[in-house]
Design goal:
Layout lengths: L4 E3 L2 E3 L2 H15 L5 H5 L1 E8 L6 E3 L1 H10 L5 E13 L4 E13 L5 E16 L5 E10 L22 H4 L8 E5 L5 E5 L3 E8 L2 E6 L2 E5 L3 H7 L5 E4 L2 E3 L4 E5 L2 E4 L4 E3 L2 H18 L1
Parallel strand pairs: 3-8
Antiparallel strand pairs: 1-2, 3-4, 5-6, 6-7, 7-8, 9-10, 11-12, 11-15, 12-13, 14-15, 16-17, 17-18
Length: 281
């Protein structure tokens, strides 16, 4: 186990030790050796992942998420740099910058420039010796998340920026969304993929950055923002901006969601989608 150094009559975190440990954890992680990664986590750690909407609180929640993850990805790294920031006598931050290559089974490789921020704090575990544990781990680069993924962007796709810029000259609805937890969200209609009914008086708004459970109904959204959405099903409104493909009785959305279309509404839905597309051409 890595130890602490005693300096100036008190306990202080050794700069080189913590930078070395931080680098060791992430380099082993990308070898798919997760032991040092989880060994370094505080029980109440906050993990903020590299994809929008990835927040996990607590080591137990992290373990469950990783146990559920199945992938065939391999990784390689280069150009790692570390910066140490002292935070008093018993805490520090370490920021790493590096390049990581994600190698997919198909032979495709994607390069990501990442910045990883550790916040380390000293903690005595079970009355034993003091250890430096990670209280916050934040991977600061962000990519849009595919709903089929949990941790790794297995379904990663490059999306051209101009696809969304095409609609910037149109009228963008600013939607006030009241969440069930009491929070208020102001969302641009162009950030919403689709809206799903979850109960008689609740809807789940699926955005490019995550989900919001609201106290409104589909009919509320349909009445207020008719120009932004098309009814595909009694339980779904879809944003036509993000429709990738219409199959027989199914609508495939960007991000991987598959929205059912009842047979009786199939023709009407295709006509509505075509009319929306003609408006933008």
């Amino acid at each position: 186990m890595l130890s602490l150094y005693i300096r100036n009559g008190g306990c202080a975190v050794d700069k080189k030790l913590m930078m070395d440990r931080s680098i060791h954890i992430i380099t082993e992680y990308y070898k798919n050796n997760l032991g040092p990664f989880f060994d370094g986590m505080d029980e109440d750690v906050l993990w903020i992942g590299p994809v929008m909407g990835q927040w996990l609180r607590g080591k137990e929640a992290m373990l469950k998420a990783w146990e559920a993850e199945k992938h065939d990805l391999t990784f390689s790294m280069r150009n790692i740099s570390a910066t140490h920031i002292p935070l008093g006598s018993a805490a520090c931050a370490v920021v790493l910058r590096y390049e990581v290559y994600t190698h997919y089974p198909s032979g495709v490789t994607h390069l990501h420039n990442q910045r990883l921020h550790y916040t380390w704090r000293e903690k005595r575990e079970g009355g034993g010796e003091k250890r430096q544990l990670i209280s916050v781990m934040h991977i600061s680069n962000a990519e849009q998340m595919d709903e089929r993924d949990a941790i790794y962007p297995v379904h990663y796709e490059n999306v051209a920026a101009h696809k969304y810029a095409e609609y910037s000259s149109g009228k963008l609805a600013r939607m006030r969304v009241q969440a069930t937890d009491g929070s208020l969200h102001i969302l641009l209609s162009t950030s919403i993929l689709y809206i799903e009914s979850s109960s008689a008086r609740q809807c789940k708004v699926h955005t490019r950055d995550g989900e919001v459970l609201t106290t409104a109904t589909l009919s509320d959204f349909e009445a207020a923002y008719a120009e932004s959405f098309i009814r595909a099903h009694s339980g779904y409104l879809v944003n036509p901006m993000y429709v990738r493909e219409v199959r027989r009785f199914q609508c495939l959305m960007e991000g991987g969601a598959v929205i059912p279309i009842p047979e009786k509404k199939y023709t009407r839905f295709k006509k509505a989608l075509s009319a929306w597309a003609d408006k933008w051409n």
